[in-house]
Every structure is written in C-alpha cells, then in structure tokens.
Specification:
The chain is mostly beta strands and 342 residues long. The chain has no helices and 29 strands. The protein has a 4-stranded mixed beta sheet with strand order 1-2-29-3, with no helix packed on it.
C-alpha cells in the first residue's frame, strides 16, 4: 500500500506496512538468535534520478544528515531527511573539488572528502564552507592513489588507504602523519602494480575501503576479497577471506553495533553479513529496483542507531535498513519506506 504526499513542492512516497522480501531472511540458516536480524527493516530512498546520479560512498553526521559522494555530477550531497533540506558541495570544472570519491565526518560534523582525481582530502565545515586540504607537503602529494578514508571521531584520527602502494596511513585531523602501515610497492622499471600472493601481518594487497568500529579499523583488502581487522593503532588483530566465487569482489564494508561485518557485492546485487571470525551469517538483496532490491550496491555505512545505509549506485538512490539487535529482536519495530525527491 502506498500513499503520496506533496509538501512544499516535494513529493514524498510512503510505502506502509513494509516487510522485507523473503530473500532477506531465507538465507540465514544460522542459530536462532540471529534469525531476527532482518525481521524488521526501514528502507528509505533519498532523492530521485534527477538528484542522485551515481551515489558511491556515504556517511552520516551527529545531526543524522546523510552525506553522499556522487562523482558523475560531480558533487557531494548533504541531505537532511528530517528537515527535508539538502545542499551540494560541487566539484569539477575549475572548482577546488574535482572528483569526490569517499567521505567521512569528524565529531564536529566537518566533512572530509577524498578527491579521487587530485589524490588529496578536502575538508569542509558542516555548512559546506572550505576549511583546509590534507595530503600535500611542499606542493607535492603524499598519496599515490586514495582508495578509501575513515575517521575515528573519538580520537580525532584520519585513516587513508593508498591502494597501489599497499599501505594505510594514520593521520591527525590536521594532516600530520602518525603512522604508515603496510609495505610500499617496490620500484619497477615497468610502472605496473605488483601482485602479491602472500602478505604478512602488517602488509596489504591493494586496500580499498575502510571503516572505524567501536575499537577497531576494518580494512577491505586484496581488491575486495579479504577483510583485515586492526585495532585503532593499526595493529592487526584478525581477518578472513570473503571471496567464495570468482566474481566475489566487495565494493563496500561496514560494521554494526554488535560487531557484525557487512560487505556489499555489486556484481551479485547483495549484502552479506559476517561474524568477526569470518562466518557468513546472512545475505540479502537481489537485482532489481524495488525497495530491498539493489543494482550495483557499493558504499555502506551503519550509524549509531544501527541503521544500515546502502549506496544503491545503479538505481541512483540510497536505501536505509533498520537492523535488529540481538537484545531487541523480539520487540516491535517501525516499518516504513520513504522516497524523497527534492
């Protein structure tokens, strides 16, 4: 059942009494305490194809605003679903921001944007005003190619993955390098990526995405086929392989409030959930454009309220799922789906 509302020139589509599709729960096959993981879902699609063109990566701030990178426009959308307002930080042309790729937010709601063209991190305040640049010294870039960023909001640290160099940088929020973890690529006469079949405890093989949990840093490594778990000082504490078939290359990673790790797979249009030990607990999603379906899902983010945000890239939207905790999986939840076009 759907109803449409027109509010201040904006159309709001509300799907009432929404329940997740069967494939969201049918695959669980795990202990009963996990069976409520996707029993109740809140799914929102922000924007419309004329607003979001190619949402790639995303995060939220303390005001529950959704910040989405959109490299096709190119722009970074700052969307406030409660106040029904939004603005963009535009890139391209002769602007300071060229190609927004990844995004993170600090405890003061400053927005950190990884520019995948200029290979720097640009910092804007919560109103979209430029603050500073991170990643240059004496007019030369520190990073060869930024593939992901994340922020420890409590400690005020910025983590940057440099894929071709196989390293992860830890910096303060002013851009001072505190630590570099990994083994840089050895120089070759032919400028091509060195493929490693083995990696040691503090080595990476093309890390791509990063996310900070309560007391750990999750690194999506080996071109999206392996999870590495580090503490916040970048010491390795665990990890596991997530490639179960040739097409398994994850495009995004996140961690929920109970330590479960989520990975998006754009080729199979699904989200998989893993325990910290690497056991697959659940899988949901299939190719399509309905609520709960995906097309090329990429960036993931889980906020403090255990809401999972998915950059449903090829559907040009963001979907949001309310995850059930083990503690309240039997309590009633709100079931709504909302699509907002600006």
């Amino acid at each position: 059942m759907h109803r449409r509302l027109a509010t201040g020139g904006r159309e709001v589509l509300i799907a009432e009494n929404y329940a997740p599709p069967l494939h969201a729960t049918a695959f669980l096959r795990v202990e009963s305490k996990q069976r409520g993981l996707f029993n109740d879902v809140v799914a929102l699609a922000y924007g419309h194809q004329n607003v979001l063109r190619m949402p790639l990566n995303l995060t939220t701030d303390s005001q529950q605003r959704v910040i989405v990178t959109d490299p096709i426009i190119p722009a970074v959308h700052v969307i406030d679903p409660h106040r029904k307002t939004s603005f963009r930080i535009l890139g391209g042309g002769n602007r300071r921001l060229s190609l927004p790729g990844d995004v993170a937010v600090d405890r003061d709601n400053n927005v950190y944007i990884a520019d995948f063209d200029r290979e720097i991190v640009l910092v804007y305040d919560q109103y979209g005003r430029f603050v500073r640049t991170i990643g240059t010294t004496y007019d030369e870039n520190i990073f060869q190619q930024i593939t992901g960023i994340a922020i420890d909001r409590n400690a005020g640290r910025l983590y940057v993955a440099d894929g071709p160099r196989h390293v992860v940088y830890m910096l303060d929020l002013q851009g001072v390098i505190l630590k570099v973890v990994g083994q840089p690529q050895r120089e070759h006469k032919v400028p091509e990526l060195q493929i490693r079949s083995d990696t040691g405890p503090h080595e990476f093989n093309y890390p791509t995405h990063l996310v900070v949990g309560e007391d750990e840093l999750i690194v999506l490594d080996t071109d999206g086929t392996r999870i590495r778990i580090l503490d916040l000082d970048c010491n390795l504490i665990g990890g596991f392989i997530i490639q179960h078939a040739a097409q398994d290359h994850s495009d995004g990673v996140s961690i929920d409030n109970e330590g479960r790790i989520y990975a998006s797979f754009s080729d199979t249009a699904e989200i998989r959930v893993y325990s910290r030990g690497g056991k697959m607990l659940a899988s949901f999603g299939e190719l399509g454009s309905r609520v709960g379906d995906f097309s090329g899902p990429r960036g993931l983010w889980i906020d403090g309220s255990n809401r999972l945000y998915v950059a449903d890239t090829s559907n040009a939207r963001v979907q949001v799922f309310q995850l059930c905790s083990e503690a309240n999986q039997n309590q009633p939840q709100v079931n709504e789906a909302e699509a907002i076009s600006h």
